[in-house]
């Protein structure tokens, strides 16, 4: 969601769908049909997105400054999203669910994705977690399954 120079910047960075108020109206009137799976917005659009928050929110598409999807650096955010950036968070039982690949990925690609995820997970470890070792007790079990 961008207008003017930011919209041109997003198009140049490779964004599939770029729009402003007309895109918000399209989402509102489209009955929940969306033509995108990631959503990035400039800060000036956040108040306007409240009109479609009930559509974007439950699908996890509502832009969020903590996740870097509300930014003035539109090209950087678009390039990060296009390169396959995955955001993860834990549920209330402290379990992290994340998609690490598709069934048609090569074994090497899956290994790279799993390694990158585990590295990111360990780097996101809270400082105040009380254990003697740096990682003991932080990850107790790792389960991988195809769905």
TrEMBL record:
Keywords: Ribonucleoprotein, Ribosomal protein. Pfam families: Ribosomal_L1 (PF00687). SUPFAM superfamilies: Ribosomal protein L1. PROSITE patterns: RIBOSOMAL_L1. The keyword Ribonucleoprotein applies. One of its GO terms (cellular component) is ribosome. Signal peptide: none annotated. Belongs to the universal ribosomal protein uL1 family. This is Ribosomal protein. It comes from Aegilops tauschii subsp. strangulata (Goatgrass).
């Amino acid at each position: 969601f961008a207008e003017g120079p930011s919209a041109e910047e997003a198009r140049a960075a490779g964004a599939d769908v770029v729009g402003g108020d007309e895109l918000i109206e399209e989402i509102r009137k489209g009955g929940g049909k969306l033509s995108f799976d990631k959503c990035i917005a400039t800060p000036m659009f956040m108040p306007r997105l409240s009109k479609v928050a009930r559509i974007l929110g439950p699908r996890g598409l509502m832009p969020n400054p903590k996740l870097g999807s509300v930014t003035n650096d539109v090209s950087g955010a678009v390039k990060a999203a296009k390169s396959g950036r995955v955001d993860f968070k834990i549920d209330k039982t402290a379990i992290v669910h994340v998609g690490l690949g598709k069934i048609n990925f090569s074994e090497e690609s899956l290994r790279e994705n799993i390694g990158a995820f585990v590295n990111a997970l360990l780097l996101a470890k809270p400082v105040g977690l009380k254990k003697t070792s740096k990682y003991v007790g932080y990850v107790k079990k790792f389960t991988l399954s195809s769905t």
